[in-house]
Amino acid sequence: xxxxxxxxxxxxxxxxxxxxxxxxxxxxxxxxxxxxxxxxxxxxxxxxxxxxxxxxxxxxxxxxxxxxxxxxxxxxxxxxxxxxxxxxxxxxxxxxxxxxxxxxxxxxxxxxxxxxxxxxxxxxxxxxxxxxxxxxxxxxxxxxxxxxxxxxxxxxxxxxxxxxxxxxxxxxxxxxxxxxxxxxxxxxxxxxxxxxxxxxxxxxxxxxxxxxxxxxxxxxxxxxxxxxxxxxxxxxxxxxxxxxxxxxxxxxx
Length: 253
Hints:
Blueprint: H1 3-10, H2 24-40, E1 47-51, H3 57-65, E2 70-73, H4 76-85, E3 91-94, H5 103-106, E4 112-116, H6 119-132, E5 136-141, H7 155-164, E6 173-179, H8 188-208, E7 218-220, H9 227-232, E8 237-240, H10 242-245
Parallel strand pairs: 1-2, 1-8, 2-3, 3-4, 4-5, 5-6, 6-7
């Protein structure tokens, strides 16, 4: 059987949009090596989130067989399809911009929501988590980049939300830390300064609002090109995609 025919046989229509057929065999053997290489250099307190958006279920399965258990997705429908198809000991992290009307679909299983950027969103997560009988850990997304396209609280907005105190009445969410995305630039001095800003703000919040909360411990920052800098500034969760899976193929079969 030719490769093209074999691929059509094993990739169902439901999942075929995740991959460009000609790249399938190239990526599989490389994934586990990359995961092992990245993890071998990580400090004990840092966890790897494999960013798997638009990559096929087969690629995630390969990563899983290589020991990876945390995957990050930014589309609720895609994440739910993968959750249904893959082993249930996977931690699913939602790392995209989240719409309130999508929360109910992932509330039963999501392990961590990285991008909470308003009290309204936090409140809706609490509501849907209550319906699912769960407490969902969340990270407050802080806008640290010199780009208007990035989402998140400003530091002043976040302080004001926390000072108001309404979040303390929410019993089905747990604020577990902060998340930030640095500017997309080759200027590593700027990137490092933005990571330092987030790290300093995390320490401020720990002191002012979460001193008695041992679960407030996560700093999600750093991606494929800059995660060593992020780790140097206290990141506990790095979000790595292209370094593991290669470039994404935005392809409809």
